[in-house]
């Protein structure tokens, strides 16, 4: 009985954490969608300029690359929290509930470890760009605001992995939908 209460307490605390994270992650995902829309508009405008004014925008490729990277890293925490990314559930769906929970916890720990490792690699890179005021080659766009999304996304994705691991459903809660 006491073990059940401890599990319920862990699940309740992870739900509270998720309740705090979801609005932030949704705003980030909306920004990712806006970045995707900006990509379409920018490419459309550049193609229009190329064929009608014979002068495409010079900076289109750089800005599209930055927007694409931003869109990915802005959407990553929400996709991680909701486990709406590519997952292989064949093995997990065959496991008993207890083993599936253990696999879910282990997967969350591996995901969090990867995010921590990626974060450790991103920060010096960001500091280097900030210290030297690095800009893109053609458009002369500052790089560090774009690069700051990577460590932010990795830190939030790590929190999302840990929140998913705390709920430890083993992936079954979204496998049915």
Any overview of this molecule?
This protein has 177 residues and is mainly alpha-helical. The chain has one domain (2-175). The protein is built from 7 helices and no strands. The chain has helices spanning 2-53, 60-81, 90-94, 97-132, 144-147, 149-167, 172-175. Helix 1 (2-53) runs antiparallel to helix 2, helix 2 (60-81) runs parallel beside helix 6 (149-167) and helix 4 runs antiparallel to helix 6 (149-167). The longest helix has 52 residues, at 2-53. The two termini are 31 Å apart. Mean pLDDT is 87; it is low at 1-6.
Q: Could you write a compact summary of the structure shown?
A:
It is built from seven helices and no strands. The chain has 177 residues and is mainly α.
Query: What oligomeric state is this?
Result: single chain
Give the percentage of residues in beta strands. Answer: under 5%
| Model regions low in confidence, pLDDT < 50 over at least 5 residues | 1-6
Distance N to C terminus: 31 Å
Query: What's the helical proportion of residues?
Result: over 70%
* Rg: 20 Å
- Secondary structure: number of strands: 0
Please indicate the count of domains.
1
Number of helical segments with 4 or more residues: 7
- Shape descriptor: elongated
Helix/strand class: mainly alpha
Would you tell me the overall average pLDDT?
87
Largest sheet entry: none
Query: Secondary-structure element sequence?
Result: HHHHHHH
């Amino acid at each position: 009985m006491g073990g059940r209460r401890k599990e319920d307490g862990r699940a309740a605390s992870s739900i509270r954490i998720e309740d705090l994270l979801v609005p932030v992650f949704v705003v980030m995902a909306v920004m990712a969608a806006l970045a995707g829309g900006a990509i379409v508009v920018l490419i459309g405008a550049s193609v229009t300029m190329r064929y009608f004014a014979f002068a495409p925008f010079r900076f289109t490729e750089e800005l599209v690359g930055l927007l694409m990277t931003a869109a990915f890293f802005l959407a990553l925490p929400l996709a991680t929290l909701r486990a709406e990314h590519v997952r292989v559930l064949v093995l997990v769906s065959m496991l008993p509930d207890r083993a599936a929970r253990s696999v879910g916890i282990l997967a969350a720990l591996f995901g969090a470890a990867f995010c921590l490792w990626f974060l450790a690699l991103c920060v010096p890179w960001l500091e280097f760009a900030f210290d030297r005021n690095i800009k893109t080659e053609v458009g002369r766009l500052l790089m560090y605001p774009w690069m700051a999304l990577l460590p932010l996304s990795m830190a939030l994705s790590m929190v999302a992995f840990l929140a998913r691991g705390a709920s430890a459903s083993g992936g079954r809660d979204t496998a049915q939908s």
